[in-house]
Structures are given as structure tokens and as C-alpha cells.
């Protein structure tokens, strides 16, 4: 052991657990010094606030960490040893993730300043939550202090997630205080009436720096902002906005003017009864925004509402959004995900068949409403750039004409698709039907259970047709999937023949 150089021992220690590294300090003086080498710790992540005594020792002894996560502040009194360790430790972290309430903002601000002084901090992520029964003014003061603390950090990527259940006052300090410097790069906030004024203030003050905005829709909320209060008018003027997630809010057509926008996720909420009036603007956004590279359209039907007219307007919304994509001229879209939980499948299917040939740069296509007719449209002529096709199962099991991914393993559908598209990679997600709603193939063939047991370590089944080891896009062979060559499907075809 004495003949091994220090760099080899440091490399070995970097692969050990935190407990093992701390134990190395007790071996000898040389090991004690190497156990505190920065290369042993710079890639590690520590989670503070869950009663892990080892993490206190890590914060006290480790010279640096990749990430420090602090949660459960309320379980530690200021005089407690673990909480004191957090502020007296000299450990410098690269990423800081904090989960705070109104009472934890002051110690969180202190910790941010401390890590800023340490000189290694590059990213700060803060999740702020205020319960419904808490004082709204106190939450407003806490948010003001938090934003001012974040504004004092320079050269740091800052992300803020806000969940306020109570109503913030209209005369918020966030609106009146003109000293807040634009620093936020990412903002995530529930879109509800309680946060209307907060969103308006933060989006306006940090418009020049925001790159990722997630206006989290509330499934059980019927709130839709009025056109004059819609965040869309502020989003349209952001020069660096790259990612946007929101429901169908008024004025989305104006966001097409945001030339930096690359990723868009639109959620059609089942509880929003005013979606019909806002669908036209969202469809116009998809029609005009040729700068988009990644689009995800999600029809979220979390509640079964017995309102036929409301169901019809929601289904028309998803159809109209796909229609906007179809009529987009000069599209540069590379990834499209259509996730639909409602009806109007035949009409949606027809529009998707029209949309695919109009997307020549499409590289990834994810869908849960695919039929054999839709898949037959995909050819090297219509979609020359397509490399990944991800098929998910539709939740309405009665519609057996929609593809069950597991059933595809027992037919010639996959072989036909891959024969026509040899560079394509097909991923079959949720390939096994649930026990309560099996399709005809899953009910008849005994391999369903054996496949389910074999694939518990994987997220999906992948099938390809190109020669093994000669893939033009090896990144499409993700390790989380169990991959088969199309020639390996002969076993499943013979299994089907023996069971018919």
C-alpha cells in the first residue's frame, strides 16, 4: 500500500462511500490527509436535514461538494448541533438546493451568502412553499427577502420555484421595491389567482435573464387569467426565454415573437372551462413559431366531468393545436410528443397523418394515439430525419384499434415499420397491458408474465433493424431500455402461432 502513489489512492477513495472515506482518516496520517483531498469530494452530493449524522461530519470535514441539498429546516432548532454545522462548515459547494418556508428564508439567505464567499458556487435552486393558513404578509416579506438575497449573487445560475396557497397582498413589496436586480434564470410557479401579482412582478423584473419559465397548471383549479393579466404579454418580450410550460392562457399567439424560444409544453387542463377561447391563440403560436425545436402537447384529463359540451371543447382544443403544427411553414421542429387522454381520436389521428410529412426535420416522435395507418405514413421520404419513434399505450382500453405495444412484438407491424425505415429506433413504452384491462394478445399469450418479470429493470423495449454495432445515432440506444434486433422477434411470432 505504501508503494501506491497518492493520485491512485485519491482515485480509489473517490469511488468509496462517504462513511468509508471518513473511516480512512483513522488508518494513518497519510490516509487522513488524502481522505480530505478535493478530488475525493468534488463529485459528491450531500443531503442535510434528514437526521443523517454522517452528513454533518461530511459538511464539517469535506473541502468541497458538487451539490448540497437542505430540507426539513423546521425539524432543527437554531441551537442544534446539525444546524450549527451548516453555518460553521467551510465546505464549498458548486450547486445549492434549498427547500424553504417563510421562517427559513433568513437562514437560507445566510447560507447563500456564505457559499458565495467560498467562491465555488455556480447554481442556486430555491423551492419556496407557503401553506394556506399562513400569514400572507409574512410570505410576501419572505419572498422579498429571498429575491433580494438571490439578486446579491453574481455569476450564479438561479432557479426559483414558488408554491403559495394563500393570497399575496396586491400592494406587494415585490412590486414597490425597485432595488431588485435581474438574476433569475429559471422560474417555476403555480398559476393561480393567489400568485397573479407575484408573477407579474417577477416576470417583469427578471425578463432579461429568465431562460426557463414553468407556470405549473393546477389540475383541480378553474382559474384562468384575464387577458389583461395574462403572463403571455410579458413572456413575448423576453430576449433569452428558451423553455416554456403553461396551460392555454390568453395571448399565447404573441409569444411567437420570442425568437429565442426552443422548447414548448402546452397542457390542456380538463378543469378549465374557458379553454376554447384560448385555443386559437395557442394554435397560432404553433403555426407561426418556426424557431421551436421541441413541442409537447398534453391533454390532462385528471377529472371525469359529466359535461358533454366541455368534453367536446377540450377534445377540439387538442385537435386544433395539432392543426396549428400542420399548417406551420418552414418548421424546424426536431421533437414532438402528443399525449392525449380524451376522445376525438379519429380526427386527431387524421391530423397527425397530415402533420408528419410537413415536419421534415423531425428527429423524435412520441405518441400514445398511434395506429397502424399513422405508422404507415412514416417513411424516409416523408420524415428523412426521424431516428426515434416512442409508442405509449392509450389509457382508454376499450379502443382496441389503437396499438398495444406488447401486441406489436407478436405481429409483423414492427418488421414492416423498420424495413421501410432502417435507421429508425422504435421504443415500446408500457408494453404490457394491466391485469384488469388486457388486450386480446396479452390475454392469450403466456409470454406476457415472463416479459414483465424480465423487464422490471428496464423502462421500455427497444427494437432496431440496422446492423449491430453500426448505428448512425448510438445515443438512441439508451441503457434504460432492453433492446432487440428485429430478427430477434421471430421467437414472438412463433409463440403467437403456437397459441392461436
TrEMBL record:
Matches recorded under SMART domains: FBOX
Organism domain of life: Eukaryota
Alphabetical list of InterPro entries matching this protein: F-box-like_dom_sf (IPR036047), F-box_dom (IPR001810), LRR_dom_sf (IPR032675)
Any single Pfam family the record assigns to this protein: F-box-like
Residues in F-box domain copies: 1-44
The protein's name in its UniProt record: Uncharacterized protein LOC113205859
Species whose genome carries this gene: Frankliniella occidentalis (Western flower thrips)
Amino acid at each position: 500500500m505504501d508503494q501506491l502513489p497518492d493520485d491512485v489512492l485519491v482515485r480509489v477513495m473517490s469511488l468509496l462511500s462517504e462513511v468509508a472515506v471518513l473511516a480512512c482518516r483513522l488508518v494513518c496520517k497519510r490516509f487522513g490527509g488524502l481522505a480530505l483531498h478535493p478530488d475525493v469530494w468534488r463529485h459528491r452530493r450531500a443531503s442535510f436535514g434528514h437526521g443523517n449524522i454522517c452528513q454533518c461530519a461530511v459538511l464539517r470535514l469535506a473541502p468541497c461538494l458538487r451539490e448540497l441539498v437542505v430540507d426539513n429546516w423546521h425539524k432543527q432548532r437554531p441551537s442544534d448541533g446539525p444546524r450549527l454545522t451548516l453555518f460553521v462548515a467551510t465546505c464549498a459547494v458548486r450547486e445549492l438546493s434549498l427547500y424553504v418556508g417563510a421562517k427559513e428564508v433568513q437562514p437560507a439567505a445566510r447560507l447563500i451568502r456564505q457559499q458565495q464567499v467560498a467562491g465555488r458556487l455556480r447554481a442556486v435552486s430555491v423551492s419556496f412553499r407557503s401553506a394556506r393558513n399562513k400569514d400572507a404578509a409574512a410570505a410576501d416579506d419572505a419572498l422579498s427577502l429571498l429575491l433580494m438575497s438571490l439578486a446579491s449573487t453574481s455569476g450564479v445560475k438561479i432557479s426559483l420555484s414558488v408554491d403559495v396557497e394563500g393570497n399575496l397582498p396586491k400592494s406587494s413589496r415585490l412590486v414597490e421595491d425597485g432595488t431588485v436586480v435581474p438574476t433569475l434564470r429559471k422560474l417555476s410557479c403555480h398559476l393561480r389567482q393567489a400568485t397573479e401579482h407575484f408573477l407579474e412582478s417577477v416576470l417583469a423584473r427578471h425578463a432579461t435573464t429568465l431562460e426557463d419559465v414553468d407556470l405549473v397548471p393546477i389540475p383541480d383549479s378553474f382559474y384562468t387569467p384575464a387577458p389583461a393579466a395574462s403572463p403571455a404579454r410579458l413572456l413575448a418580450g423576453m430576449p433569452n426565454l428558451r423553455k416554456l410550460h403553461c396551460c392555454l392562457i390568453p395571448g399565447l399567439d404573441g409569444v411567437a415573437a420570442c425568437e429565442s424560444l426552443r422548447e414548448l409544453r402546452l397542457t390542456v387542463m380538463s378543469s378549465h372551462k374557458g379553454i376554447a377561447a384560448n385555443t386559437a391563440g395557442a394554435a397560432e403560436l404553433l403555426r407561426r413559431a418556426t424557431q421551436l425545436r421541441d413541442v409537447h402537447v398534453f391533454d390532462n384529463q385528471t377529472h371525469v366531468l359529466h359535461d358533454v359540451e366541455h368534453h367536446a371543447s377540450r377534445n377540439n382544443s387538442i385537435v386544433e393545436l395539432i392543426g396549428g403544427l400542420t399548417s406551420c411553414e418552414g418548421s424546424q421542429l426536431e421533437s414532438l410528443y402528443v399525449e392525449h387522454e380524451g376522445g376525438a381520436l379519429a380526427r386527431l389521428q387524421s391530423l397527425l397523418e397530415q402533420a408528419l410529412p410537413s415536419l421534415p426535420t423531425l428527429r423524435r416522435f412520441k405518441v400514445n394515439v398511434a395506429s397502424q395507418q399513422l405508422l404507415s405514413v412514416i417513411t424516409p421520404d416523408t420524415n428523412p430525419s426521424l431516428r426515434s419513434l416512442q409508442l405509449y399505450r392509450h389509457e382508454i382500453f376499450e379502443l382496441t384499434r389503437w396499438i398495444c405495444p406488447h401486441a406489436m412484438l407478436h405481429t409483423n407491424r414492427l418488421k414492416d415499420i423498420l424495413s421501410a425505415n432502417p435507421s429508425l429506433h422504435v421504443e415500446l413504452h408500457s408494453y404490457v397491458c394491466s391485469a384488469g384491462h388486457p388486450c386480446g394478445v396479452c390475454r392469450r399469450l403466456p409470454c406476457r408474465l415472463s416479459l414483465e418479470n424480465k423487464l422490471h429493470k428496464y423502462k421500455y423495449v427497444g427494437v432496431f433493424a440496422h446492423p449491430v454495432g453500426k448505428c448512425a445515432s448510438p445515443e438512441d440506444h439508451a441503457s434504460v431500455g432492453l433492446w432487440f434486433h428485429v430478427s430477434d422477434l421471430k421467437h414472438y411470432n412463433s409463440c403467437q402461432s403456437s397459441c392461436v
